[in-house]
Automatic annotation (TrEMBL):
<keyword id="KW-0961">Cell wall biogenesis/degradation</keyword>
<keyword id="KW-0132">Cell division</keyword>
<keyword id="KW-0131">Cell cycle</keyword>
<dbReference type="InterPro" id="IPR036318">
    <property type="entry name" value="FAD-bd_PCMH-like_sf"/>
</dbReference>
<comment type="pathway">
    <text>Cell wall biogenesis; peptidoglycan biosynthesis.</text>
</comment>
<keyword id="KW-0573">Peptidoglycan synthesis</keyword>
<dbReference type="Pfam" id="PF02873">
    <property type="entry name" value="MurB_C"/>
</dbReference>
<keyword id="KW-0285">Flavoprotein</keyword>
<dbReference type="InterPro" id="IPR016169">
    <property type="entry name" value="FAD-bd_PCMH_sub2"/>
</dbReference>
<dbReference type="GO" id="GO:0009252">
    <property type="term" value="P:peptidoglycan biosynthetic process"/>
</dbReference>
<dbReference type="GO" id="GO:0051301">
    <property type="term" value="P:cell division"/>
</dbReference>
<dbReference type="InterPro" id="IPR003170">
    <property type="entry name" value="MurB"/>
</dbReference>
<dbReference type="InterPro" id="IPR036635">
    <property type="entry name" value="MurB_C_sf"/>
</dbReference>
<dbReference type="InterPro" id="IPR016166">
    <property type="entry name" value="FAD-bd_PCMH"/>
</dbReference>
<dbReference type="GO" id="GO:0008360">
    <property type="term" value="P:regulation of cell shape"/>
</dbReference>
<protein>
    <recommendedName>
        <fullName>UDP-N-acetylmuramate dehydrogenase</fullName>
        <ecNumber>1.3.1.98</ecNumber>
    </recommendedName>
</protein>
<dbReference type="Pfam" id="PF01565">
    <property type="entry name" value="FAD_binding_4"/>
</dbReference>
Length: 233
């Protein structure tokens, strides 16, 4: 978000916080409001022995945000689990997108139309032994060990280019030594930028551009943003 005032409306999804389990014969699904915190849904899944969501371990934010950005880890994502997503358009039109209407792409919203507000979604899950769920959660937690957990970051800055890891490219061309104002490339993982207390949005943006330039000059690869910038940059 740009420094200073943003000339835009902001919608809070906090009130969309319903979380219901539906059981139908052997099938089980969870209907979640867009404002439900990802960690709350994961905790419910663990408590009720529902499998399929362990990939959400350590991903902050809401279900709406995670669906919008097609959040995932190690190749796992919502795509095989989502039965439908309900949205409201700018004009107030309600639409329920069925599984077949959604076109999932790496870290992109599942539709190519103008921005839509996600209100809720239905996830088809499966019963799983709690021991197994815990094992899977530990597995995903382990994958995050190399990340700057606890630091102020917005998650991965760049998408991984096909067949490559953005963090590795950034590290190889020395980006870990870069900083602008209070924004620094993380020493733990070069695809994260840490705010050391006083970074302005402009500092973070300028630092990302420096990183992008280095990778392009060194490898000829233009890294695409995974994070989104709002306002004037
Ligand atoms: C420490 C850290 C680790 C992370 N690890 C991962 C990871 O392993 N894998 C991964 O994929 N991502 C990861 N992320 C990114 C994470 O997925 C996003 O930050 C998160 O999903 C954003 O959710 P939010 O609710 O905070 O949305 P916001 O940050 O508020 O918004 C993000 C975007 O989603 C849109 N949005 C939010 N809610 C809705 C809604 N209801 N309807 C329509 N659009 C909406 C916003 O308009 C905005 O464009 C990580 C982030 C952090 C900070």
């Amino acid at each position: 978000m740009q420094d200073g005032l943003l000339n835009a409306g902001v919608i809070s999804s906090a009130a969309l916080d319903s979380l219901d389990i539906r059981e139908d014969g052997g099938a089980v699904s969870v209907e979640a409001g867009a404002g439900v915190q990802v960690r709350k849904m994961l905790a419910l899944a663990l408590e009720r022995g529902l499998g399929g969501l362990a990939f959400l371990t350590g991903i902050p934010g809401t279900i709406g945000g995670a669906l919008y950005g097609n959040a995932g880890a190690a190749g796992e994502s919502f795509a095989p689990l989502v039965e439908w997503i309900e949205t409201v358009s700018h004009a107030g039109e309600l639409r329920r997108w069925q599984r077949g209407d959604l076109s999932w792409q790496y870290r992109e919203s599942p539709w190519r139309e103008p921005p839509l507000l996600i209100t809720k979604a239905l996830f088809r899950l499966f019963y799983e032994q709690k021991n197994n769920i815990i094992k899977n959660i530990r597995h995903f937690a382990e994958l995050k060990k190399g990340q700057p957990i606890g630091a102020k970051t917005a998650g991965c800055v760049f998408k991984n280019p096909p067949g490559e890891a953005a963090g590795r490219l950034l590290e190889q061309c020395g980006c870990k030594e870069l900083s602008v104002g209070g924004a620094r490339v993380s020493q733990r993982h070069a695809n994260f930028i840490e705010n050391h207390g006083c970074a302005r949005a402009e500092d973070i943006y300028n630092l990302t551009r420096m990183c992008q330039k280095r990778v392009y000059e060194e490898f000829g690869i233009k890294l695409a943003y995974e994070i989104k910038f709002f306002g004037a940059f």
